[in-house]
Amino acid sequence: MPNLKQHNSRRETMSYLVAALYHFARFTDYQAFRAPLQAVAEENGIRGTLLLAHEGINGTIAGSPEGIANVLSFLRARPELAGLEHKESWATKMPFNRLKVRLKKEIVTMGVTDIDPLKSVGTYVEAKDWNALISDPDTIVIDTRNDYETAIGTFRGAVDPHTKTFREFPRWVAENAGLRNKPKIAMYCTGGIRCEKATAFMKEQGFDEVYHLKGGILKYLEEVPETESLWDGACFVFDERVSVTHGLKEGEHALCHACRHPLTPEDKLSADYDEGVSCPHCAEAYSDADRARFRERQHQIALAKGRGERHLGA
Fold first, then answer.
1. 108-132: average pLDDT
2. What are the residue boundaries of the Rhodanese domain, all occurrences included (predicted)?
């Protein structure tokens, strides 16, 4: 439950509380839960995305501390979700355009059947113990995120699979027999959900000593002092903040609304950068017709901004 006294003290500079959450569970009637969950979130002025599936819940939402507390209480009132944990950070502006509560086959899509983190999963490692594990020469450290995420930050010495989507991760494991050269596998992701499912997959593949960072990068950046940190760069987040750094402070990155790649301040100085239209990562990837469509969308965003409105296509 959020500490409202602490939250009120921070409201002078930070306006919105952001809660990242997930929980694997046997959620047999998840479809029927969608409408009441959406209603409670709407009543409390919450925006963001929540995914429901037979295997549990996953999402990130933002709003007032009181609104977030009410939604979390509503979720934890369900027996299947009583153990749900969440991670908090702050945003100076509302980081989501709308509320979406969606039904899915998986709350994080790997595309492999019969992978069940409730049956077999790796060993959780607390943020305070992570440095010791990944510094062990007997450990292979794997970043389970996608290439556009790893591009702006990662743990020192980590292996980057360069995947475009999480669906590619099982094939990458199959193609890298060298992963069995060391006894320990340590895995991490943004908030914990992908690496939890990835450790379940690795256990199914016969890896014995498999570990994952509890609470993900977000918990590490929140709890581990920067002076002791083995993290370099920023952590990509799936909202309009784009990235966060140590202490979960908002990063300097922007988002290319053409290709969705995070952009550094230097990227925005490139001749290939045209706001909303192209960036150094996608300048050659789209047709003239695509760029014309992007340019019109950006024009509509600018018009909406001038009227003091939010353009949903942003």
1. 95
2. 135-229
